[in-house]
Amino acid sequence: MPHGRDILNNPRLNKGTAFTDQEREALGLQGLLPDGVASPEAQVLRVRRQLQQCTTDLDKYVYLNELADHNERLFYRLMRQEPAELMPLVYTPTVGEACQKFGHILRRPRGLYVGLNRRGRVRQVLENWPEEDVRLIVVTDGERILGLGDQGVCGMGIPIGKLALYSAFGGVPPHCTLPVTLDVGTNNEAFLEDPLYPGLRHRRVSGPEYDDFVEEFVQAVQQAFPRCCIQFEDFTNRTAIPLLDRYRDRVCCFNDDIQGTAAVAVAGMLGACRIRGDRLRDHRIVFYGAGSAAIGIADLCCLQMTREGLSMAEARTRCFLMNSKGLVTPQTPGLTEHQRPYAHANPPMRALLEVVQAVKPTAIVGVSTVAGAFTAEVIREMARLNERPVIFPYSNPTSKSECTARDAIEHSDGRAIFASGSPFPPLHHRGKLFVPGQGNNVYIYPAVGMAVYCTQATRVTDEMFLRAAESLAGQVTEEDLRVGLIYPPVAEIHPTLVNEAVDVATLIFDRGLARVPRPADIGAWLRAQVYDPSYA
Domain holding 67: CATH number? Predict the structure, then answer.
Protein backbone atom coordinates (compact mmCIF):
# COMPACT_ATOMS: atom_id res chain seq x y z
CA MET A 1 0.00 0.00 0.00
CA PRO A 2 1.44 3.44 -0.90
CA HIS A 3 2.28 5.65 2.06
CA GLY A 4 2.66 9.34 2.82
CA ARG A 5 3.59 11.55 -0.12
CA ASP A 6 3.26 8.61 -2.53
CA ILE A 7 -0.49 8.72 -1.87
CA LEU A 8 -0.70 12.48 -2.37
CA ASN A 9 1.21 12.13 -5.65
CA ASN A 10 -1.17 9.44 -6.95
CA PRO A 11 -4.24 11.16 -8.48
CA ARG A 12 -6.37 8.01 -8.14
CA LEU A 13 -5.65 7.65 -4.42
CA ASN A 14 -5.34 11.29 -3.42
CA LYS A 15 -8.25 12.85 -1.52
CA GLY A 16 -6.34 15.99 -0.57
CA THR A 17 -7.78 17.80 2.42
CA ALA A 18 -10.69 15.32 2.58
CA PHE A 19 -8.55 12.63 4.27
CA THR A 20 -9.96 12.05 7.75
CA ASP A 21 -7.85 12.21 10.90
CA GLN A 22 -7.94 8.41 11.12
CA GLU A 23 -6.79 8.05 7.52
CA ARG A 24 -3.98 10.54 8.06
CA GLU A 25 -2.73 8.56 11.05
CA ALA A 26 -2.91 5.23 9.22
CA LEU A 27 -1.36 6.46 5.96
CA GLY A 28 1.44 8.65 7.31
CA LEU A 29 -0.11 11.92 6.16
CA GLN A 30 0.22 13.85 9.43
CA GLY A 31 1.75 17.24 8.76
CA LEU A 32 1.62 16.79 4.97
CA LEU A 33 -1.79 18.46 4.86
CA PRO A 34 -3.42 21.36 6.75
CA ASP A 35 -5.09 19.98 9.86
CA GLY A 36 -8.60 21.01 8.87
CA VAL A 37 -10.59 18.17 7.27
CA ALA A 38 -12.61 19.40 4.29
CA SER A 39 -15.85 17.83 3.15
CA PRO A 40 -16.14 16.88 -0.54
CA GLU A 41 -18.62 19.74 -0.89
CA ALA A 42 -16.07 22.20 0.47
CA GLN A 43 -13.47 20.86 -1.96
CA VAL A 44 -15.85 21.39 -4.88
CA LEU A 45 -16.54 24.94 -3.66
CA ARG A 46 -12.82 25.70 -3.50
CA VAL A 47 -12.26 24.33 -7.00
CA ARG A 48 -15.17 26.30 -8.40
CA ARG A 49 -13.88 29.56 -6.90
CA GLN A 50 -10.40 28.92 -8.25
CA LEU A 51 -11.89 28.12 -11.65
CA GLN A 52 -13.79 31.42 -11.62
CA GLN A 53 -10.52 33.27 -11.17
CA CYS A 54 -9.19 31.92 -14.49
CA THR A 55 -9.51 34.68 -17.08
CA THR A 56 -9.82 32.60 -20.29
CA ASP A 57 -11.34 29.28 -21.29
CA LEU A 58 -7.87 27.96 -22.10
CA ASP A 59 -6.73 28.85 -18.56
CA LYS A 60 -9.74 26.92 -17.25
CA TYR A 61 -8.82 23.96 -19.46
CA VAL A 62 -5.30 23.93 -18.06
CA TYR A 63 -6.59 24.22 -14.48
CA LEU A 64 -9.04 21.34 -14.91
CA ASN A 65 -6.38 19.11 -16.42
CA GLU A 66 -4.09 19.86 -13.51
CA LEU A 67 -6.93 18.99 -11.14
CA ALA A 68 -7.33 15.62 -12.89
CA ASP A 69 -3.58 15.06 -12.51
CA HIS A 70 -3.79 15.83 -8.80
CA ASN A 71 -7.15 14.49 -7.57
CA GLU A 72 -8.94 12.37 -10.17
CA ARG A 73 -12.09 11.67 -8.18
CA LEU A 74 -12.63 15.35 -7.35
CA PHE A 75 -12.25 16.19 -11.05
CA TYR A 76 -14.88 13.63 -12.09
CA ARG A 77 -17.25 14.57 -9.27
CA LEU A 78 -17.13 18.16 -10.46
CA MET A 79 -17.65 17.12 -14.11
CA ARG A 80 -20.67 14.99 -13.25
CA GLN A 81 -22.22 17.81 -11.20
CA GLU A 82 -21.76 20.52 -13.85
CA PRO A 83 -21.74 18.91 -17.32
CA ALA A 84 -23.24 21.85 -19.21
CA GLU A 85 -20.66 24.27 -17.82
CA LEU A 86 -17.57 22.08 -17.85
CA MET A 87 -17.92 19.91 -20.97
CA PRO A 88 -17.16 22.85 -23.32
CA LEU A 89 -14.01 23.53 -21.27
CA VAL A 90 -12.74 19.95 -21.13
CA TYR A 91 -13.69 19.14 -24.72
CA THR A 92 -15.15 21.13 -27.64
CA PRO A 93 -14.76 23.94 -28.32
CA THR A 94 -11.88 24.72 -25.91
CA VAL A 95 -9.93 21.56 -26.72
CA GLY A 96 -9.37 22.91 -30.24
CA GLU A 97 -7.37 25.87 -28.93
CA ALA A 98 -5.66 23.54 -26.45
CA CYS A 99 -4.41 21.34 -29.32
CA GLN A 100 -3.16 24.36 -31.26
CA LYS A 101 -1.16 25.47 -28.19
CA PHE A 102 -0.48 22.01 -26.73
CA GLY A 103 3.30 22.31 -26.83
CA HIS A 104 3.10 25.63 -25.00
CA ILE A 105 0.71 24.61 -22.22
CA LEU A 106 2.12 21.10 -21.66
CA ARG A 107 2.63 20.35 -17.95
CA ARG A 108 2.48 16.69 -17.05
CA PRO A 109 2.31 14.45 -20.15
CA ARG A 110 -0.67 12.09 -20.14
CA GLY A 111 -1.33 9.00 -22.22
CA LEU A 112 1.07 7.17 -24.52
CA TYR A 113 3.00 8.67 -27.41
CA VAL A 114 3.82 5.92 -29.89
CA GLY A 115 6.37 7.33 -32.31
CA LEU A 116 7.37 6.01 -35.70
CA ASN A 117 10.89 5.74 -34.30
CA ARG A 118 9.58 2.87 -32.09
CA ARG A 119 8.76 0.60 -35.04
CA GLY A 120 9.30 -3.02 -34.11
CA ARG A 121 8.89 -2.17 -30.40
CA VAL A 122 5.31 -0.88 -30.20
CA ARG A 123 4.19 -3.64 -27.85
CA GLN A 124 7.04 -2.74 -25.49
CA VAL A 125 5.81 0.88 -25.50
CA LEU A 126 2.26 -0.23 -24.66
CA GLU A 127 3.54 -2.39 -21.83
CA ASN A 128 5.15 0.67 -20.25
CA TRP A 129 1.64 1.80 -19.36
CA PRO A 130 1.15 1.09 -15.63
CA GLU A 131 -2.37 -0.41 -15.97
CA GLU A 132 -2.69 -4.00 -17.20
CA ASP A 133 -6.43 -4.13 -17.91
CA VAL A 134 -6.97 -1.38 -20.49
CA ARG A 135 -10.44 -1.70 -22.05
CA LEU A 136 -10.78 1.49 -24.12
CA ILE A 137 -8.14 3.21 -26.22
CA VAL A 138 -8.82 6.44 -28.08
CA VAL A 139 -6.09 6.83 -30.69
CA THR A 140 -5.34 9.60 -33.17
CA ASP A 141 -2.54 10.38 -35.59
CA GLY A 142 -3.35 14.08 -35.28
CA GLU A 143 -3.80 14.68 -38.99
CA ARG A 144 -7.35 16.06 -38.92
CA ILE A 145 -8.09 17.47 -35.49
CA LEU A 146 -11.67 18.80 -35.42
CA GLY A 147 -11.82 21.34 -38.26
CA LEU A 148 -8.29 22.57 -37.55
CA GLY A 149 -6.28 20.23 -39.75
CA ASP A 150 -2.88 18.72 -38.97
CA GLN A 151 -1.97 19.19 -35.31
CA GLY A 152 0.62 16.42 -35.17
CA VAL A 153 1.35 15.06 -31.72
CA CYS A 154 -0.48 18.08 -30.26
CA GLY A 155 -3.68 16.26 -31.23
CA MET A 156 -3.26 14.31 -27.97
CA GLY A 157 -5.73 16.76 -26.44
CA ILE A 158 -8.51 14.95 -28.29
CA PRO A 159 -7.99 11.42 -26.86
CA ILE A 160 -7.47 12.89 -23.39
CA GLY A 161 -10.69 14.89 -23.62
CA LYS A 162 -12.73 12.07 -25.15
CA LEU A 163 -11.73 9.64 -22.42
CA ALA A 164 -12.49 12.18 -19.69
CA LEU A 165 -16.07 12.23 -21.01
CA TYR A 166 -16.17 8.42 -21.16
CA SER A 167 -15.61 8.31 -17.42
CA ALA A 168 -17.42 11.46 -16.33
CA PHE A 169 -20.64 10.75 -18.22
CA GLY A 170 -20.53 7.21 -19.60
CA GLY A 171 -19.31 5.65 -16.37
CA VAL A 172 -16.24 3.79 -17.67
CA PRO A 173 -13.63 3.55 -14.87
CA PRO A 174 -10.71 5.90 -15.70
CA HIS A 175 -8.04 3.30 -14.98
CA CYS A 176 -9.42 1.19 -17.85
CA THR A 177 -8.90 3.95 -20.43
CA LEU A 178 -5.80 4.97 -22.37
CA PRO A 179 -5.26 7.98 -24.69
CA VAL A 180 -2.77 7.28 -27.50
CA THR A 181 -1.18 9.42 -30.20
CA LEU A 182 0.59 7.80 -33.13
CA ASP A 183 3.41 10.21 -33.99
CA VAL A 184 4.12 9.76 -37.68
CA GLY A 185 5.32 13.33 -38.19
CA THR A 186 3.45 16.46 -39.18
CA ASN A 187 3.05 18.64 -42.25
CA ASN A 188 2.21 21.66 -40.09
CA GLU A 189 5.00 24.10 -40.99
CA ALA A 190 4.41 26.26 -37.92
CA PHE A 191 4.89 23.27 -35.64
CA LEU A 192 8.02 22.07 -37.45
CA GLU A 193 9.55 25.50 -36.85
CA ASP A 194 8.29 25.84 -33.25
CA PRO A 195 11.03 25.07 -30.69
CA LEU A 196 8.29 23.99 -28.24
CA TYR A 197 6.67 21.42 -30.56
CA PRO A 198 6.92 18.14 -28.59
CA GLY A 199 6.70 15.61 -31.44
CA LEU A 200 8.92 14.11 -34.12
CA ARG A 201 10.28 16.79 -36.43
CA HIS A 202 9.74 15.37 -39.88
CA ARG A 203 6.98 15.33 -42.45
CA ARG A 204 4.22 12.75 -42.23
CA VAL A 205 4.83 9.31 -43.60
CA SER A 206 2.13 7.69 -45.71
CA GLY A 207 1.51 4.66 -47.87
CA PRO A 208 2.82 1.20 -46.91
CA GLU A 209 5.13 2.59 -44.21
CA TYR A 210 2.15 4.23 -42.47
CA ASP A 211 -0.10 1.19 -42.94
CA ASP A 212 2.52 -1.17 -41.51
CA PHE A 213 2.99 1.05 -38.47
CA VAL A 214 -0.75 1.16 -37.74
CA GLU A 215 -0.91 -2.61 -38.23
CA GLU A 216 1.85 -3.10 -35.68
CA PHE A 217 -0.03 -0.87 -33.24
CA VAL A 218 -3.34 -2.73 -33.67
CA GLN A 219 -1.68 -6.10 -33.24
CA ALA A 220 0.28 -4.90 -30.20
CA VAL A 221 -2.98 -3.79 -28.57
CA GLN A 222 -4.46 -7.25 -29.09
CA GLN A 223 -1.45 -8.79 -27.37
CA ALA A 224 -1.02 -6.30 -24.52
CA PHE A 225 -4.71 -5.62 -23.81
CA PRO A 226 -6.78 -8.49 -25.26
CA ARG A 227 -10.13 -7.15 -23.96
CA CYS A 228 -9.57 -3.64 -25.34
CA CYS A 229 -11.73 -1.70 -27.80
CA ILE A 230 -9.92 0.76 -30.09
CA GLN A 231 -11.61 4.03 -31.01
CA PHE A 232 -10.02 5.65 -34.07
CA GLU A 233 -10.31 9.42 -33.73
CA ASP A 234 -9.63 12.40 -36.02
CA PHE A 235 -7.91 10.54 -38.82
CA THR A 236 -8.12 12.31 -42.15
CA ASN A 237 -10.75 11.29 -44.72
CA ARG A 238 -8.01 9.66 -46.76
CA THR A 239 -7.30 7.11 -44.02
CA ALA A 240 -10.41 7.00 -41.77
CA ILE A 241 -12.71 4.84 -43.91
CA PRO A 242 -9.94 2.46 -45.11
CA LEU A 243 -8.82 1.92 -41.50
CA LEU A 244 -12.35 1.15 -40.37
CA ASP A 245 -12.89 -1.20 -43.32
CA ARG A 246 -9.60 -2.95 -42.59
CA TYR A 247 -10.16 -3.61 -38.90
CA ARG A 248 -13.88 -3.56 -38.07
CA ASP A 249 -14.32 -7.30 -38.71
CA ARG A 250 -10.93 -8.27 -37.27
CA VAL A 251 -10.82 -6.54 -33.88
CA CYS A 252 -13.11 -4.68 -31.49
CA CYS A 253 -12.94 -1.13 -32.85
CA PHE A 254 -14.92 1.78 -34.26
CA ASN A 255 -14.43 5.27 -35.66
CA ASP A 256 -16.31 7.92 -33.73
CA ASP A 257 -16.03 10.52 -36.50
CA ILE A 258 -17.86 8.13 -38.82
CA GLN A 259 -20.14 6.01 -36.63
CA GLY A 260 -20.57 8.25 -33.59
CA THR A 261 -21.32 11.30 -35.73
CA ALA A 262 -23.74 9.21 -37.77
CA ALA A 263 -25.61 8.03 -34.67
CA VAL A 264 -25.99 11.49 -33.14
CA ALA A 265 -27.21 12.81 -36.50
CA VAL A 266 -29.76 9.99 -36.87
CA ALA A 267 -30.95 10.63 -33.31
CA GLY A 268 -31.38 14.29 -34.25
CA MET A 269 -33.31 13.36 -37.38
CA LEU A 270 -35.57 11.07 -35.33
CA GLY A 271 -36.24 13.99 -32.98
CA ALA A 272 -36.96 16.23 -35.96
CA CYS A 273 -39.40 13.62 -37.26
CA ARG A 274 -41.33 13.81 -33.98
CA ILE A 275 -41.66 17.58 -34.39
CA ARG A 276 -42.60 17.36 -38.07
CA GLY A 277 -44.88 14.34 -37.68
CA ASP A 278 -43.14 12.26 -40.35
CA ARG A 279 -40.57 9.46 -40.64
CA LEU A 280 -36.96 9.44 -41.77
CA ARG A 281 -37.96 7.67 -44.98
CA ASP A 282 -39.92 10.82 -45.94
CA HIS A 283 -36.83 13.06 -45.90
CA ARG A 284 -34.44 14.30 -48.57
CA ILE A 285 -31.08 15.20 -47.04
CA VAL A 286 -28.26 17.29 -48.50
CA PHE A 287 -24.89 16.77 -46.84
CA TYR A 288 -22.62 19.78 -47.18
CA GLY A 289 -19.37 17.85 -47.05
CA ALA A 290 -18.62 14.49 -48.67
CA GLY A 291 -15.97 13.02 -46.39
CA SER A 292 -16.05 10.18 -43.90
CA ALA A 293 -18.48 11.91 -41.53
CA ALA A 294 -21.01 12.58 -44.30
CA ILE A 295 -20.70 9.03 -45.61
CA GLY A 296 -21.18 7.62 -42.12
CA ILE A 297 -24.32 9.69 -41.49
CA ALA A 298 -25.77 8.87 -44.91
CA ASP A 299 -25.11 5.15 -44.44
CA LEU A 300 -26.79 5.03 -41.03
CA CYS A 301 -29.72 7.16 -42.23
CA CYS A 302 -30.22 4.69 -45.07
CA LEU A 303 -30.07 1.76 -42.66
CA GLN A 304 -32.86 3.38 -40.63
CA MET A 305 -34.87 4.08 -43.80
CA THR A 306 -34.69 0.40 -44.75
CA ARG A 307 -36.12 -0.42 -41.32
CA GLU A 308 -38.99 1.89 -42.23
CA GLY A 309 -39.74 0.00 -45.44
CA LEU A 310 -37.53 1.43 -48.19
CA SER A 311 -35.07 -0.64 -50.15
CA MET A 312 -31.44 0.36 -49.77
CA ALA A 313 -31.43 1.67 -53.34
CA GLU A 314 -34.50 3.82 -52.63
CA ALA A 315 -32.99 5.11 -49.38
CA ARG A 316 -29.79 6.19 -51.10
CA THR A 317 -31.71 8.28 -53.63
CA ARG A 318 -32.82 10.45 -50.71
CA CYS A 319 -29.25 11.41 -49.70
CA PHE A 320 -27.11 13.92 -51.65
CA LEU A 321 -23.47 14.89 -51.11
CA MET A 322 -21.67 18.15 -51.83
CA ASN A 323 -17.91 18.59 -51.87
CA SER A 324 -15.68 21.55 -52.74
CA LYS A 325 -16.55 21.09 -56.42
CA GLY A 326 -20.32 21.14 -55.82
CA LEU A 327 -23.02 18.49 -55.97
CA VAL A 328 -21.54 14.99 -56.23
CA THR A 329 -22.62 13.25 -59.44
CA PRO A 330 -21.29 10.26 -61.41
CA GLN A 331 -19.12 12.74 -63.33
CA THR A 332 -17.47 14.23 -60.22
CA PRO A 333 -13.68 13.72 -60.47
CA GLY A 334 -12.02 11.46 -57.92
CA LEU A 335 -15.12 9.70 -56.59
CA THR A 336 -14.39 7.15 -53.91
CA GLU A 337 -16.07 3.77 -53.63
CA HIS A 338 -18.04 4.98 -50.62
CA GLN A 339 -19.28 8.13 -52.37
CA ARG A 340 -20.54 6.37 -55.50
CA PRO A 341 -23.88 5.15 -54.02
CA TYR A 342 -24.79 8.80 -53.41
CA ALA A 343 -23.57 10.16 -56.76
CA HIS A 344 -26.91 10.68 -58.50
CA ALA A 345 -27.47 11.82 -62.05
CA ASN A 346 -27.97 15.59 -61.79
CA PRO A 347 -26.77 18.64 -63.73
CA PRO A 348 -23.52 20.07 -62.34
CA MET A 349 -24.18 22.59 -59.55
CA ARG A 350 -21.56 24.33 -57.43
CA ALA A 351 -23.50 26.57 -55.02
CA LEU A 352 -25.44 25.23 -52.04
CA LEU A 353 -28.35 27.58 -52.74
CA GLU A 354 -28.60 26.20 -56.27
CA VAL A 355 -28.57 22.63 -54.94
CA VAL A 356 -31.28 23.40 -52.37
CA GLN A 357 -33.46 24.94 -55.07
CA ALA A 358 -33.00 21.90 -57.34
CA VAL A 359 -33.09 19.02 -54.85
CA LYS A 360 -35.69 20.57 -52.50
CA PRO A 361 -34.32 18.90 -49.35
CA THR A 362 -36.09 18.68 -46.03
CA ALA A 363 -32.75 18.75 -44.18
CA ILE A 364 -29.25 20.14 -44.68
CA VAL A 365 -26.39 18.67 -42.66
CA GLY A 366 -23.07 20.50 -42.42
CA VAL A 367 -19.89 18.44 -42.02
CA SER A 368 -17.62 20.68 -44.06
CA THR A 369 -15.86 22.90 -41.48
CA VAL A 370 -16.70 25.82 -43.81
CA ALA A 371 -17.86 28.58 -41.46
CA GLY A 372 -21.00 30.41 -42.59
CA ALA A 373 -21.74 28.06 -45.49
CA PHE A 374 -25.43 28.00 -44.52
CA THR A 375 -26.09 31.58 -45.60
CA ALA A 376 -29.20 33.64 -44.93
CA GLU A 377 -30.34 32.92 -48.50
CA VAL A 378 -29.93 29.16 -48.06
CA ILE A 379 -31.82 29.16 -44.75
CA ARG A 380 -34.62 31.29 -46.19
CA GLU A 381 -34.94 28.92 -49.15
CA MET A 382 -35.11 25.93 -46.79
CA ALA A 383 -37.88 27.72 -44.88
CA ARG A 384 -39.73 28.47 -48.12
CA LEU A 385 -39.62 24.78 -49.07
CA ASN A 386 -40.47 23.39 -45.62
CA GLU A 387 -42.79 24.41 -42.81
CA ARG A 388 -40.15 23.02 -40.38
CA PRO A 389 -36.75 22.92 -42.14
CA VAL A 390 -34.06 20.76 -40.51
CA ILE A 391 -30.74 22.62 -40.24
CA PHE A 392 -27.80 20.78 -38.65
CA PRO A 393 -24.41 22.59 -38.81
CA TYR A 394 -22.36 19.87 -37.14
CA SER A 395 -18.81 21.11 -37.81
CA ASN A 396 -16.51 21.73 -34.85
CA PRO A 397 -15.21 23.89 -33.24
CA THR A 398 -17.66 26.80 -33.02
CA SER A 399 -15.53 28.91 -35.37
CA LYS A 400 -16.09 26.31 -38.12
CA SER A 401 -19.87 25.97 -37.73
CA GLU A 402 -21.82 26.31 -41.00
CA CYS A 403 -24.18 28.75 -39.25
CA THR A 404 -25.11 29.92 -35.78
CA ALA A 405 -28.29 29.12 -33.91
CA ARG A 406 -29.39 32.73 -34.25
CA ASP A 407 -28.84 32.57 -38.02
CA ALA A 408 -31.01 29.48 -38.35
CA ILE A 409 -33.83 30.74 -36.11
CA GLU A 410 -34.02 34.30 -37.37
CA HIS A 411 -33.70 33.54 -41.11
CA SER A 412 -36.34 30.81 -40.86
CA ASP A 413 -38.66 33.02 -38.79
CA GLY A 414 -38.36 30.66 -35.84
CA ARG A 415 -39.35 27.54 -37.79
CA ALA A 416 -35.97 25.78 -38.14
CA ILE A 417 -35.32 22.54 -36.27
CA PHE A 418 -31.73 23.21 -35.26
CA ALA A 419 -28.81 21.25 -33.82
CA SER A 420 -25.11 22.03 -33.99
CA GLY A 421 -21.82 20.34 -33.22
CA SER A 422 -20.72 23.10 -30.82
CA PRO A 423 -22.82 24.76 -28.12
CA PHE A 424 -24.85 27.92 -28.70
CA PRO A 425 -26.70 29.79 -25.93
CA PRO A 426 -30.51 29.93 -25.64
CA LEU A 427 -32.18 32.77 -27.49
CA HIS A 428 -35.55 34.44 -27.89
CA HIS A 429 -37.27 35.12 -31.18
CA ARG A 430 -40.56 36.99 -31.30
CA GLY A 431 -41.15 36.29 -27.63
CA LYS A 432 -40.50 32.56 -27.82
CA LEU A 433 -37.61 30.75 -26.10
CA PHE A 434 -35.38 28.52 -28.24
CA VAL A 435 -32.82 26.18 -26.66
CA PRO A 436 -30.38 25.07 -29.38
CA GLY A 437 -29.57 21.38 -29.33
CA GLN A 438 -25.94 20.30 -29.44
CA GLY A 439 -25.51 17.26 -31.67
CA ASN A 440 -22.26 16.31 -30.01
CA ASN A 441 -20.93 12.76 -30.27
CA VAL A 442 -20.68 12.74 -26.49
CA TYR A 443 -24.36 11.74 -26.60
CA ILE A 444 -23.33 8.46 -28.24
CA TYR A 445 -19.78 7.13 -27.91
CA PRO A 446 -19.54 6.98 -24.08
CA ALA A 447 -22.70 4.83 -24.02
CA VAL A 448 -21.38 2.47 -26.69
CA GLY A 449 -18.04 2.32 -24.90
CA MET A 450 -19.68 1.57 -21.54
CA ALA A 451 -21.73 -1.22 -23.10
CA VAL A 452 -18.62 -2.69 -24.74
CA TYR A 453 -16.67 -2.37 -21.48
CA CYS A 454 -19.30 -4.22 -19.45
CA THR A 455 -20.06 -6.95 -21.99
CA GLN A 456 -16.46 -7.30 -23.22
CA ALA A 457 -17.89 -7.31 -26.73
CA THR A 458 -15.83 -8.95 -29.47
CA ARG A 459 -16.92 -6.45 -32.13
CA VAL A 460 -18.61 -3.06 -32.54
CA THR A 461 -21.29 -2.91 -35.24
CA ASP A 462 -23.31 -0.21 -37.00
CA GLU A 463 -26.41 -1.77 -35.46
CA MET A 464 -25.09 -0.84 -32.00
CA PHE A 465 -24.83 2.80 -33.07
CA LEU A 466 -28.33 2.74 -34.50
CA ARG A 467 -29.61 1.28 -31.22
CA ALA A 468 -27.82 4.07 -29.33
CA ALA A 469 -29.43 6.66 -31.64
CA GLU A 470 -32.89 5.19 -31.08
CA SER A 471 -32.34 5.11 -27.32
CA LEU A 472 -31.13 8.71 -27.28
CA ALA A 473 -34.05 9.96 -29.38
CA GLY A 474 -36.50 8.05 -27.18
CA GLN A 475 -35.34 9.96 -24.09
CA VAL A 476 -36.32 13.37 -25.49
CA THR A 477 -39.46 14.62 -23.75
CA GLU A 478 -42.35 16.58 -25.21
CA GLU A 479 -41.25 19.52 -23.06
CA ASP A 480 -37.80 19.36 -24.66
CA LEU A 481 -39.35 19.40 -28.13
CA ARG A 482 -41.46 22.46 -27.32
CA VAL A 483 -38.35 24.60 -26.84
CA GLY A 484 -36.63 23.14 -29.90
CA LEU A 485 -34.45 20.56 -28.11
CA ILE A 486 -34.09 17.34 -30.11
CA TYR A 487 -31.55 15.90 -27.67
CA PRO A 488 -31.97 15.53 -23.91
CA PRO A 489 -30.57 18.48 -21.92
CA VAL A 490 -26.81 18.35 -21.35
CA ALA A 491 -27.48 18.61 -17.60
CA GLU A 492 -28.97 15.08 -17.79
CA ILE A 493 -26.26 13.55 -19.93
CA HIS A 494 -24.99 11.04 -17.36
CA PRO A 495 -28.30 9.20 -16.76
CA THR A 496 -29.09 9.55 -20.48
CA LEU A 497 -25.88 7.73 -21.44
CA VAL A 498 -26.31 5.03 -18.82
CA ASN A 499 -29.79 4.30 -20.19
CA GLU A 500 -28.33 4.12 -23.70
CA ALA A 501 -25.57 1.80 -22.53
CA VAL A 502 -28.16 -0.60 -21.11
CA ASP A 503 -29.96 -0.68 -24.47
CA VAL A 504 -26.74 -1.23 -26.41
CA ALA A 505 -25.56 -3.92 -23.99
CA THR A 506 -28.88 -5.71 -24.44
CA LEU A 507 -28.29 -5.75 -28.20
CA ILE A 508 -24.76 -7.08 -27.70
CA PHE A 509 -26.12 -9.99 -25.70
CA ASP A 510 -28.91 -10.54 -28.24
CA ARG A 511 -26.38 -10.78 -31.08
CA GLY A 512 -24.07 -13.16 -29.22
CA LEU A 513 -21.15 -10.69 -29.21
CA ALA A 514 -20.57 -10.62 -25.43
CA ARG A 515 -17.70 -12.44 -23.72
CA VAL A 516 -19.46 -12.55 -20.36
CA PRO A 517 -22.62 -14.45 -19.31
CA ARG A 518 -25.93 -12.65 -19.81
CA PRO A 519 -27.24 -11.38 -16.45
CA ALA A 520 -30.87 -11.71 -15.45
CA ASP A 521 -31.25 -7.93 -15.10
CA ILE A 522 -28.98 -6.18 -17.59
CA GLY A 523 -29.89 -2.71 -16.31
CA ALA A 524 -29.04 -3.40 -12.68
CA TRP A 525 -25.91 -5.32 -13.68
CA LEU A 526 -24.56 -2.51 -15.86
CA ARG A 527 -25.42 0.27 -13.42
CA ALA A 528 -23.51 -1.57 -10.70
CA GLN A 529 -20.36 -1.17 -12.84
CA VAL A 530 -20.70 2.60 -13.39
CA TYR A 531 -17.68 4.50 -12.12
CA ASP A 532 -18.38 6.26 -8.81
CA PRO A 533 -16.10 9.29 -8.23
CA SER A 534 -17.00 9.59 -4.54
CA TYR A 535 -14.39 8.93 -1.86
CA ALA A 536 -16.36 6.04 -0.33
Answer: 1.20.1370.30
How many Cα neighbours within 13 Å face the side chain of 511?
18
pLDDT at 1 over 80: no
- Among 486, 457, 464, 320, smallest CA distance to 392 is for 486
Q: Looking at 15, 60, 162, 400, which residue is catalytic?
A: 162
Statement: the pTM of the whole predicted model exceeds 0.85? yes
472 and 444 Cβ atoms separated by less than 8 Å: yes
Q: pLDDT-derived band of residue 397, with 50, 70 and 90 as boundaries?
A: confident
User: Is 236 found in the same domain as 99?
Assistant: yes
Report d(CA 89, CA 490) in Å as an integer: 14
How many domains does the structure of the chain reveal? 2
- The secondary structure of 168-197 as a DSSP string is III---GGGEEEEEEE-----HHHHH-TT-
Torsion of CA 265, 267, 269, 274, to 10 degrees: -160
Q: Report how far residue 371's alpha carbon sits from residue 399's, in angstroms, rounded to the nearest whole number.
A: 7
pLDDT tens-place string over residues 154-168: 999 999 999 999 999
Q: Which of 91, 166, 288, 342 is catalytic?
A: 91
Residue 432 among the catalytic residues: no
For residues 24 and 44, state if they share a domain: yes
Residue 166: active-site member: no
Domain limits at 20? 5-82
Handedness of CA 373, 376, 380, 381 (dihedral sign): negative
Residues 42 and 105 in one domain: no
